[in-house]
Amino acid sequence: MTTTESAPAAGTAAAGAPRGRGKGDVQGTRRLAALLLSPTLLVLALVIGYPVLAGFRESLYARGEGLDADGFVVEGDRFVGLDNYTAIFQGDRADAFWNAFSNTTFFTLTTVVLETVIGVAMALIMQQAFRGRALVRASILVPWAIPTAISGLLWRWIFQADGAANAVLRQEILWTADGFPAKMAVVIAEVWKTSPFIGLLVLAGLQMIPRDVYEAARVDGAGPVQQFFRITLPLVKPALLVAVLFRMLDVLRMFDLPAVLIGVNQKSVETLTMIAWFEASNLRYGSAAAYATVLFLYIALIAYLFVKLLGADIIGEARQKTGHRKTGRARAVRSARGGRRAAA
């Protein structure tokens, strides 16, 4: 009788020992991971965290001469609180801000959509096996390799009044003047330059897809269109989302291309980065820091929504799979314990 009672206890202790060691191993792994990541986190805090905090602090001050509450002239840095932000949204600089905000959003939506479509088409072409494929790949990647300033000068020459664009269209359009044609000129130049970037990342994702998947689809009778929407697009989605996210963050900070192609202080192409640079060049550092802070928050919001909306399903599937695995393991352990008890 004593032997019968001690066997389950021993089995319970033996079954519980690995579980305790597993928890300790997990905690030790987490501490080791935190220790190994601490230098990287420290560098990121110094390189990213400190400038962000310093910029926000600068946005709360104003430089130059001004009047205090008693009417005396004050020189140097003055604490103005949220006055710089109030001036941006409702003050004398509100019109310029909302114009730059709308231009930035327009360029982001337009260029990213066109670049995604053209980039995917480029990737599908570069993936095909044909004679001269290496030459085609090199020629497609040439625009991405050209510096942005040089690209802006090139397209400025094309969009001149007597340039190649008007010669092809047989119309005289003032592309580089202030107006809607200037926006289209920036969109065309930006799409031409950065579409190969998306094409390159999508091509890397396409090469990871096994050929057996397409062969099985052809055996089942799937056509090229069905293969693209049912196989290619879902499997290449992670690489495509990364490329689109990078391009969105890059276009939101657009400055050099419209500045070189059209010029600064042009309302039709003025972006948030350009208006922040203009304020800083006129020694209004507080206002420039406020513009930069608003742009930082805008970019962070767009990135968060992009990852949250398009990455929620992936995270949910991962959690469901993890939960199913944990449930299956628990059931196996319970059944094993029940078998040992029955045998005892």
Spatial separation of the terminal alpha carbons: 11 Å
Overall residue-averaged pLDDT value: 80
Q: What is the strand content?
A: under 5%
Q: Uncertain segments of ≥5 residues (pLDDT<50)?
A: 1-20, 312-330, 335-340
Structural class by sheet pairing and helices? mainly alpha
Keywords:
344 residues, mainly alpha, two-stranded antiparallel ribbon, 12 helices, 4 strands, flat, disordered N terminus
Description:
The structure is a single chain. This protein is mostly helical and 344 residues long. It is built from twelve helices and four strands. The protein has helices at residues 2-58, 83-89, 94-127, 133-145, 148-158, 164-169, 180-206, 211-219, 224-251, 256-261, 272-281, 285-343, and strands at residues 61-62, 66-67, 73-74, 78-79. Helix 9 (224-251) crosses helix 12 (285-343) and helix 11 crosses helix 12. The chain is flat.
